[in-house]
Design a protein that fits this description.
The chain has helices spanning about 1-15, 30-45, 60-70, 80-85, 85-95, 105-110, 120-135, 160-165, 170-175; strands at about 20-25, 50, 75, 100-105, 115-120, 150-155, 180. It is an alpha/beta fold.
Length: about 180
């Protein structure tokens, strides 16, 4: 569901979105699953995907060059430990190549990425602490219900938008939980 929402937000930013580069870590199992989910979501929206997966951080400049040469209009960034660690380089390359980015963590936007929509991690961590407390007080982990995240946030970096020459629609800015200027 989050993938679809992220695509929708990119579509509101760029209604003529037809080609989307996907930056992901090929050796990360979670990224592989997320990439498949994105393939399914884009089929329904008729957005063509360009695979710019990487295995090492030093492949990032080549990935962004390939996205630009492939006429990508934006980059969908799939999170992994490698991607997270390289968030500042990714943001700088995105601006250099004039490619707006969408991802799932506010920290990538704080590093200079354009936009994120995803789980509000501080809320998730607080809820995890409640579980830890229950377990330490004797609850059996198998007896505790599995919970899904309930709080999500949209974060937009207007400084990055300006550097990319983009105007974020006021309707999108109004829905943002955090706007960086």
């Amino acid at each position: 569901e989050l993938t679809g929402k992220r695509l929708q937000l990119l579509g509101e930013l760029s209604p003529k979105l037809a080609r989307l580069a996907v930056l992901w870590h090929r050796d990360n199992v979670g990224s592989t699953t997320a990439f498949r989910d994105l393939q399914v979501a884009t089929r329904a929206s008729k957005v063509a995907l360009q695979n710019v997966g990487i295995r090492k951080a030093d492949e990032l400049p080549e990935a962004f060059s390939a996205a630009e040469q492939g006429k990508a209009q934006a980059v969908f960034v799939l999170l992994s430990p490698l991607i997270y660690a390289e968030r500042q380089q990714i943001a700088a390359l995105a601006v250099k190549h004039k490619l707006p980015t969408m991802n799932g963590a506010a920290e990538l936007v704080e590093a200079g990425g354009l936009m994120s929509y995803g789980t509000h991690y501080p809320d998730l961590f607080r809820r995890a602490a409640v579980y830890v407390d229950k377990i330490l007080k004797g609850a059996k982990p198998g007896d505790l219900p599995i919970e899904q995240p309930t709080k999500f946030e949209l974060v937009i970096n207007l400084k990055t938008a300006k550097a990319l020459g983009l105007t974020i629609p006021p309707s999108v800015v109004a829905r943002a939980d955090q706007v960086l200027e």
